[in-house]
Amino acid sequence: METAAISEDVSCSETLKTIYERRAVRKYKQIPVDHELITKVLDAGRMAPSAINKQPWKFYILTGSETIKAFSKEIAKVTARTFVKTHSGTDVLKTAIHVFHMLKEGDLFKRPDPIFHGAPVVVFIAAPRDNEWAPIDIGMCAQNMMLAAKALGLDSCPVGLAKYVEQTRIFSRLQVPLSEQVYMAVILGYGDETPETHQRIRNNAFFIE
C-alpha cells in the first residue's frame, strides 16, 4: 500500500496550514484553558454543516481535574468489561492494540487519567438518539473544533471511547437527557508533546469520468 507524508508547501493558506499541522495530542501541560477560548472552539463546532441544518450537537464540558479523572477511570472500567464481553481469542488482542496503542499492557488502571490523557478540558458531544445523521454531523463538528483549537494555540484529540460514559455509575452527573446519546468527546489543552506526522495513504483516490 502506497503511503507518504504529505509535506507540500501550504504556507500560502492559513487554513491548509492549520489542517496539516493539527495532531492528536495525548500529553498535556497542567495549564487551565480560558473559558473564552473554549467558547471560540465551541463556536467553530457550531459552524459545521449538518443534515437539513438541524445542528443536532450538544456540548457537555468538564474542566475540573478531579471530575475529569473520575469520569476517565469509570469509562476505562466500562471499556475493559465491554472488550472482554464482546471479543474473544485473537480479536481481543487486536482490538486492545488498536484502541490502547498509547498504553502498555496492564497499565490501563494505573494511570490517573487513562482516557482523557490529562487534558484540562473534556467536551462530550451528544445528539438526539433518533437522528440518523447525527454521527456524520458530529464528526464534522468535532473536526471544526479541533482545527479551531489548533488555530487558537491549543491542542486536541478525538476520544471515541467517551461514548461508554453512558454505562458508567456517574453518567447522571453530566445531566444528559435520556433522549440524547453521547457519541464522542474532544479533549483540549496545551500540548506537552509534538507527535510526528503519520504516513498518509496516497493511492486511495479514484476519478470516474
Topology:
Layout: E1 3-4, H1 14-21, H2 35-46, E2 58-62, H3 65-86, H4 90-99, E3 121-128, H5 134-151, E4 155-159, E5 180-189, E6 200-201
Antiparallel strand pairs: 1-6, 2-3, 3-5, 4-5
What attributes does this structure have?
NADH Oxidase, 209 residues, two-stranded antiparallel sheet, 5 helices, alpha+beta, globular, 4-stranded antiparallel beta sheet, 15% strand
**How large is the share of residues in beta strands?**
15-25%
Biggest pleated sheet: 4 strands, antiparallel
> What's the number of extended β-strand segments?
6
Low-confidence stretches: 102-106
Summarize the amount of helix as a percent range: 25-40%
The chain-level structural class is alpha+beta
- Total helices: the number is 5
For the biggest β-sheet, the strand order reads: 2-3-5-4
CATH class: Alpha Beta
Rg, rounded, reads: 18 Å
Describe what you observe in this structure.
With 209 residues, the chain is of the alpha+beta class. The chain has one domain (23-194): NADH Oxidase. The protein contains 5 helices and 6 strands, in the order E-H-H-E-H-H-E-H-E-E-E. A 4-stranded antiparallel sheet has the order 2-3-5-4. The chain has a two-stranded antiparallel ribbon with strand order 1-6. Helix 2 packs across helix 5. It is globular.
